[in-house]
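Bench log. Compound arrived from synthesis this morning; before running ITC I wanted a structural hypothesis for how GCB sits in the protein. Inputs:
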Amino acid sequence: MLYPQSNRYRWVTNLNGIWRFEAVGDSYSPATPLQGGGLTAVPASMNELVTDPSISNHVGRVVYEREFSIPQLPECEYRLRLGAVSHRCEVFLNGEKLGEGINGYDPVDLQLEKLSEKNRLTVVIDNRLTNHTFPAGRLKKERQIINHDFYNFTGIHRDVLIYTRPKRCIQDVIIQTVVGGNYHRVRAEVHTSCKRLHLTVLDRDGKAVAESDGGELWISEPMLWSPASPYLYTLAVETESDRYEERFGIRRVEVKGDSFLLNGEPIYFKGFGMHEDFFLLGKGNNGAVNIRNFELLKWIHANSIRTSHYPYSEEILSLADEYGILVIDEVPAVGMNWWEENYGENGIDDTTLALHRELIKRLHARDKNHPSVVMVSVANEAATNEAPAKAYFENVMGYARELWALPITVVEFYHAEETLASQFADVICINRYFGWYYDHGDLSVIEEQMKNELCGWHDRYQRPILVTEFGCDTVEGLHALPAESFSEEFQWAYFEACGKAFDACPFCIGEHPWAFADFKTKQGLTRVRGNRKGVFTKDRQPKSGARYLRERWKNIK
Ligand code: GCB
């Protein structure tokens, strides 16, 4: 799947902006234009814009609609691309169904065949979460029960693009780089119905450094991609009727013994799990927010992020390539614990498994050429201790490994001796909240408990361990000496205690405090306007913990 681009054969425009909007019942039909309702913005979550709680918390269907007119160019195929619609959608053009989206975090890319002078585009969104959606949820009468700790935002969350491509076009470009010796191989698999093919690798200055009429290219003495030097090349693919340019980086990723190696050098992951979430935008992708996030990652000396708990926008991944931020790419499998007996028919079944595999496939189709993506996570905190988890995770992790030439992991909540999934992981990833969800407020237990935990995992699996979550809710401006939970002093001391444990474990390959910034959740007794474990506030200013981490990470190369 290629991201739309504009050149002399291709053209892109966007349909972002103001759309008509209405929360509707199941009897709604798109045969006639939307009559009632109001206005909303794209990309954004509708929940943050309305003032009526019954709409903000609406469980069910909402309709987005707008008109558009575009020039009709000859000899090309028109396509519509919605970057992400949460969670499922049906798309109609002038009342006729074009297709549907099955998940809230990957693009819906559809052919536009019958364009008129004036067109009505209708997107019917369903935000209900069940055992056949990712993330999962349950419906109790009309109440939505969710198993995860982030708000169930609804809307068109990423750009809506219309693009053209020639009838005989380049459909896909898969780039693999092989690092070794003085020459480095770039293998390009081009999917096309065109006859003639020419490939050119351009360096950062636009100078051709390798050319071929298909297949492999060799580059001598290339610049490798790494966080310290995120060097990007461009592969220009040219045919008799089309052209496409894809950026890529040359790098080698391996897990060897207790190390995670990038270009042969051990990596220590410093960074965060985070969320796509900002004031008013909800999960709406926004360039300014994205840039601020990456500037803060650099400021704090981070080198990595995990796309907890779903694939982030393609724009974010492109920025990660450019800023040199390593990405652990996660599919939206979060809170999967529905095979417990009490959930009965809402449990995991073959449909769930098939969808999980499909989402891994789509992640690969979308993100395969990003050098920043160095590991794939198939789930966060699933009930990996339940008997069916073994076959289930063997299946999905095996499938991920067939697609990606990268380490595969699953992020764990259960203990080393309980889980049936981590045996299939290349890197052990664990989330731990000592001194917070257990022994709340007791800073003195954290270092020892964390150390014991890490050693327990290592004794059993003999693999590198990355702590993908640890942290404490912190209200900015709240101070207490001696430190008390929720204060900025506590966050500082909390990270200090965890850091001592990590430093004592040579097999610990990194630390991702939870979370990058505060974010919205459903309301709850432990959530004061959301989850406050952010190292940065929601408006992206540092709390005390950020200053501690900045000093610590500056000294970890
Ligand atoms: C976790 C989850 C994350 C939550 C976090 C918390 O283990 O993976 O989604 O937000 O804990 O703060 O409770």
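What the model suggests: The mean pLDDT is 95. Residues 149, 309, 380-381, 431, 469, 514, 531, 533 surround GCB (CB under 6 Å).
ITC booked for Thursday regardless.
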